[in-house]
Amino acid sequence: MKTEILTSGMHCNGCENRMVKALKGLEDIKDAKADAKTGKVVIKHSKEETITEAKTLIGEIGFEVLST
């Protein structure tokens, strides 16, 4: 599955890298891409529950989830 999450709070490449590194640390996430300009985060995963985990993690590392 591929899911797009709209976030706020990313301002630079460092933010993108922090987001991707954190998300790839979740067991089910096979790939993650983040774009600071659009606020979009795209993750590839195989379980629906992973979305909830990813959204929680995004908040824990200092960004806000706007929508999925």
UniProtKB/TrEMBL annotation:
Organism domain of life = Bacteria
**What is the official name of this protein in its record?**
Cation transport ATPase
InterPro entries per UniProt: HMA_dom, HMA_dom_sf
Report the coiled-coil segments. Answer: none
- GO terms assigned for molecular function: metal ion binding
Q: Residue limits of the HMA domain?
A: 1-66
The record, for Pfam families, names:
HMA
